[in-house]
Amino acid sequence: MEISELLSQADRVFNRDGDHCDFGCTENATPEMIAYVKENFPSYPFCVVSDWVWVDINVSKEMVEALEARGLKPSVIYAHRVINDEASRAFTSVRTTFLQDFQQNCIFQSRNTAYILYGRGTRVTVDSAVFASIFFA
Predict the structure, then answer these.
(1) 11-26, pLDDT tens digit by residue?
(2) Burial letters for 92-120: b for 16+ Cβ neighbours within 10 Å, e otherwise?
């Protein structure tokens, strides 16, 4: 892959230049989603994020199988804004770890946190080399 394509893919993530998707909850639904996480995933802290990008990562078949063996999928969220982080980790933006489960059309569950996607976001697909270079995976 040429460097210009790698830069273009990275640019799409940081500038939210992906396909619009209908995931995410409204401001009125956010308290309900927080309650849902607390009831259904009591060991997972919630983190409400906005200005988010769902990043699907092109990986080899072997990598997909390795992730699936661990109960994961090659997708992450990059959120430009953290609204409410139950764990008080003091960051203003966040990149999740790999997707474990997705529920209620707005709860992206990683291995250690339930991210509540607030508002509409975008979705992009990037090459695994782009993911590794921009997120230091």
Answers:
(1) 777 776 778 898 999 9
(2) eebbbebbbebeeebbbbbeebbbbbbbe
